[in-house]
């Protein structure tokens, strides 16, 4: 019997089919690919490209996209620091469940605070949290401004916008970094290839 947070008198119920059984079924290893970076840095683009590449190789993945989750699970949260923290904590917990289900869970969220990302890393064991830093200059993201949000933030119409008047803390220990080469951003296919190669090298695309 245990107390966890505000939950008292709770028991953990073991289930007969475990993660290893599911991984064997899927011929892959469950993990979380956590994509972090500024708005407009290409997180969703990489997530989709990676999802497509894995699907074509017969690997089961699922995308947890920050914007999409704010339509449902996290629609009660705003963008102040404690809401951002709770947003990331919840997505970390959901990602952990997907990884336990045996899936390659692709989480794409700005996730600006290092301690929040590290909190999600700590939820997973054995290197199963693979942090991908979209290291794109602010100027590139702002130039793209696909959603017109930078323009609004610069005009003071959105407050607390990451990179403008709210901090972004780059990872210190990420597994993968996506950078421009000679001022040119890799294509979505190339970005996905970089992550897929990592997954392949580390054995995530097979169950043994
Ligand atoms: N590798 C890339 N090369 C060129 N344009 C890109 C690349 N990745 C993303 N983009 C473009 O940048 C914009 C923002 O990308 P998006 O994936 O929505 O960013 P985020 O999810 O990080 O906010 C989109 O218009 C997208 O088409
Ligand atoms: Mg996005």
From TrEMBL:
EC number in record: 2.7.1.25
Catalytic activity: adenosine 5'-phosphosulfate + ATP = 3'-phosphoadenylyl sulfate + ADP + H(+)
Pathway membership: Sulfur metabolism; hydrogen sulfide biosynthesis; sulfite from sulfate: step 2/3
InterPro entries, sorted: APS, APS_kinase_dom, P-loop_NTPase
APS kinase domain mapped to chain residues: 29-178
UniProt-listed Pfam families: APS_kinase
Gene Ontology, cellular component aspect: cytoplasm
The keyword rRNA-binding is assigned to this record: no
GO MF term list: adenylylsulfate kinase activity; ATP binding
Root EC class: transferase
Keywords: Amino-acid biosynthesis, ATP-binding, Cysteine biosynthesis, Kinase, Nucleotide-binding, Transferase
GO biological process annotation, one example: sulfate assimilation
Organism domain of life: Eukaryota
Keyword ATP-binding in record: yes
Family: Belongs to the APS kinase family.
Known function: Catalyzes the synthesis of activated sulfate.
Entry protein name: Adenylyl-sulfate kinase
Provenance organism: Dillenia turbinata
Lineage: Eukaryota, Viridiplantae, Streptophyta, Embryophyta, Tracheophyta
């Amino acid at each position: 019997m245990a107390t966890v947070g505000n939950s008292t008198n709770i028991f953990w119920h073991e289930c007969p089919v475990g993660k290893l059984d599911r991984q064997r079924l899927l011929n892959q290893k469950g993990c979380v690919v956590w994509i972090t970076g500024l708005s407009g840095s290409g997180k969703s683009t990489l997530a989709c490209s990676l999802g497509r590449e894995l699907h074509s190789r017969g690997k089961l993945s699922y995308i947890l996209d920050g914007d999409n989750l704010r339509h449902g699970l996290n629609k009660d949260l705003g963008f102040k620091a404690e809401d951002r923290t709770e947003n990331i904590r919840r997505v970390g917990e959901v990602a952990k469940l997907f990884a336990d289900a045996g899936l390659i869970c692709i989480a794409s969220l700005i996730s600006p605070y290092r301690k929040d990302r590290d909190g999600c890393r700590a939820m997973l064991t054995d290197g199963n949290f693979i942090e991908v830093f979209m290291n794109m200059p602010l100027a590139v993201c702002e130039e793209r401004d696909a959603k017109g949000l930078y323009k609004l933030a610069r005009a003071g119409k959105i407050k607390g916008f990451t990179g403008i008047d709210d901090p972004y803390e780059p990872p210190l220990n990420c597994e993968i970094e996506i950078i421009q080469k000679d001022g040119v951003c890799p294509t979505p296919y190339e970005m996905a290839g970089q992550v897929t190669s990592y997954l392949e090298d580390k054995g995530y695309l097979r169950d043994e």
